Every structure is written in structure tokens, then in C-alpha cells.
Peroxidase (Triticum urartu), 337 residues
Amino acid sequence: MSRERRPPLALALAVAAAVVGVLAAASPRAEAELQVGFYNATCPIAEGVVFAEMHAILHEDPTLAPSLLRMHYHDCFVQGCDGSIMLRSRRGTAERDATPNRSMRGYDAIERIKARLETLCPLTVSCADIIAMAARDAVYLSKGPWYGVETGRRDGNVTVAEYAENDLAPPDSNIVDVKTFFSVKSLTAKDIVVLFGSHSIGTSHCEAFRKRLYNFTGAMDQDPSLDAGYARQLRKLCPRRHGGRGRRTKVPMDPGSGFTFDLSYYRHVLATGGLFQSDGSLLHDAATRGYVERMANASSPDEYYQDFAAAMVKMGRTDVLLDSLGEVRATCGVFVD
Ligand code: HEM
Ligand SMILES: *[C@@H]1O[C@H](CO)[C@@H](O)[C@H](O)[C@H]1NC(C)=O
Ligand SMILES: *[C@@H]1O[C@H](CO)[C@@H](O)[C@H](O)[C@H]1NC(C)=O
Ligand SMILES: *[C@@H]1O[C@H](CO)[C@@H](O)[C@H](O)[C@H]1NC(C)=O
Ligand SMILES: *[C@@H]1O[C@H](CO)[C@@H](O)[C@H](O)[C@H]1NC(C)=O
Ligand SMILES: *[C@@H]1O[C@H](CO)[C@@H](O)[C@H](O)[C@H]1NC(C)=O
């Protein structure tokens, strides 16, 4: 990790976590918490192993970087960051069977990292933590920031497809919908606009935004908030009808910079209205729009990187299982029914 550039905030968090850890140990009534370096004593090589595996995995398939960042978001929003996104159902009723999974990739990568850790520190490192570490490494290996990732999550063994349908905002959400979905998880407007910067890397299938191009209000019209030139390009890539060529097509969410975690997402949203209505919705609220404009004009990504680290740490605390709750399994994707 020679390229490591820890931003001051991550250092502060690491120090704070260490202090909290000491206080918690001293007080019998203190509750367990996530900590940076939770595995320092029980599996000190855990983070290094995840990083090395991620390095190899992304060398083999760079498109898994965005997928694994997205996986942490989906895991956290559905029943908390508890690794339950990995669980399987023979009846097709797991989170991974739900509509938003249609494009989720990277399950095998998490299982590969898990298998490596099981040989080194059996039954110690949770799947939820591996997903959180993989997301951090994916960002860093996409030239984004490094941050101290909190660990200590345990894994849930319950998965319900409907939770994924209900807790993940659809891409045609407006800013009011988005705020509702995120405030349920205690995330603010600032967290929203910062986390959406994740769409700086990765791709989408046409079906997530086709309506904007061909049938926005049901009158065979185009979304007027979408830049006309950009809409023309998208219509070329994604034909009107689902199926055939357009079914497999993947469109970058931040064209021209889809593998680099940087500020160009904000410039893209400001200039074109973004790929999804939910991206464009950032322009329809004074606070989120102000941030988009500021980041679109920023000369350095430093402030954004600090904000992103803080927002990811916060998202990573969503409804976690700690201490005696949950379990640490040998395999992440076990069948639960
Ligand atoms: C309202 C909130 C959000 C909506 C509606 C949304 C929607 C989507 C959609 C439709 C895709 C494309 C999937 C596909 O067709 O392949 C996508 C991809 C992605 N999303 Fe989001 N997203 C949201 C929030 C987030 C957040 C909070 C993060 C991360 C913290 C995130 C990270 C990603 C990444 C990295 C990809 C690219 C995946 C890949 O290339 O495989 N998204 N998102
Ligand atoms: C683990 O070690 C790192 C690096 O020395 C330190 O920053 C962190 O606070 C430690 N965490 C715990 C829980 O011991
Ligand atoms: C996603 O859900 C669909 C529909 O239930 C299922 O056929 C598919 O196998 C799931 N995808 C993955 C990667 O699990
Ligand atoms: C356009 O949208 C309307 C309303 O949602 C729907 O009834 C109609 O079937 C759609 N047309 C096409 C061609 O998709
Ligand atoms: C960003 O730059 C554009 C053009 O250079 C300017 O019109 C706009 O006012 C700037 N916005 C902010 C928030 O500085
Ligand atoms: C799920 O985990 C709990 C402990 O957290 C355990 O009591 C229960 O038996 C487990 N259920 C299954 C289906 O593995």
C-alpha cells in the first residue's frame, strides 16, 4: 500500500476509534462499536489480504471495482450492513433475487476473498466487513481516496427479496423520494450528494434510464431536463425496445471517466442532467445543487475525498450487527432456505 494517502479525516477517525476502543474496554456498560482495525489482534493481516486479493481481482476484471462499491451500498441499505446480500435462496426469495440485483456482480470476488481469509484466520472476518473493505479498496484502486474502514460487523442470516425492492430507491426517483429513502437510514442531503459521486465509476444497463429517452411522461416524449445532445447519444446506444442489442449494452454513468473516481461525475450531472433521473434530481434541491456546482468547479478533489470518506464510514454503520448478534460463517453465500 505504498500509494497510501490517508486524508487527515481518516486519521482523525482512526484515532477517535482507538480512543473509543480504550474507553469501551474500561467501562463494563459500554456498547460494542465498529472500530478501525477491529481485526488488529485476531487477524492482523485481514486488511492486507483483502487489498492484495482486490488488486488481483481488479487486474483480471477492472469492471468489478464499481460493482463491489455498489455491493456495499446495497448490503447496507437492505437490513443493514450484514452481508445478507450474499445469502442464497432456493425459492428465489433472497435479496440477490430482487429486481435491483439484476445487474449486481462480484459475489464470486467476495467469496474468493473470504476463502483466502478462512485459510488464514478461520471463522474470524465477517462477510459484511469483507464487503466494506472491498468497497474501500475498489475506490482507492480506481484512483479515489483511501480511508480508514471501520470493521467489527457480524453477518445476518436472514434475507428477504422484498426488503431490497422496498429499501433501494429506483433510478427514476426525484429528490424528494431520494431524501426519503436516505433519511430512513439516517443519511442527510449532504450524504446523498456525496455518495452519489460513486456514479463516477461504473456502468448501467439501458433499462434503468430508457424511459427518459422515449416515453418520459407516457406521451412518447423525452425528459426535458436531459441535455439534447447527450440524449441523442444515449438513444444511439439504447434502442427504444428492450431486448436484442440494447439488452446487454452497458453505458458509463460518467462518460469519458468511467473507471476513475473523480469529480467529473459532478461536471457531467451539471452539464447534461446525469444518466438517471435520480442523478439529475441533485439539481432540484438548493443544498445538493450547491454542492454539485461547487464540486464541478473545484480545482482539487481533496474536499470531496474527505466528504466521501466520512459518508462511506457513516453508511457503513447502518443497522450493523455487533458483538453477540449475528455470526461469522465460513462461506458467505450459504443457502438459507
Ligand atoms: C437513489 C440512489 C441510487 C440509485 C437510484 C442508483 C441506481 C443505480 C443504477 C440503476 C445502476 C446501474 C445498474 C446496472 O444497470 O448495471 C447503478 C450503478 C452503480 N451504483 Fe448506484 N444508485 C444509487 C445510489 C448509489 C450509492 C449510494 C452508491 C455507492 C455508495 C452507488 C454506487 C453505484 C456504482 C458504483 C454503480 C456501478 C455498478 C457497476 O458498474 O457494476 N449507487 N446505480
Ligand atoms: C489497529 O491498528 C491501527 C494501526 O496501528 C490503528 O490505527 C487502529 O486504531 C487499531 N485499532 C484497534 C481497534 O486496535
Ligand atoms: C437476480 O434475480 C433474478 C430473478 O429472481 C434471478 O434469476 C437471478 O439469478 C439473480 N441474479 C443473481 C446474480 O443472483
Ligand atoms: C408509454 O407510457 C405509457 C404510460 O406509462 C404506456 O401506457 C405506454 O405503453 C408506453 N408506450 C411505450 C411504447 O412504451
Ligand atoms: C462554476 O463555474 C461556472 C462557469 O465557470 C460559473 O458560471 C458558476 O457560477 C460557478 N459556480 C460556482 C458555485 O462557483
Ligand atoms: C441465524 O443466526 C442465529 C444467531 O444469530 C441462530 O440462532 C440461528 O439458528 C441462525 N439461523 C439459521 C437459519 O442459520
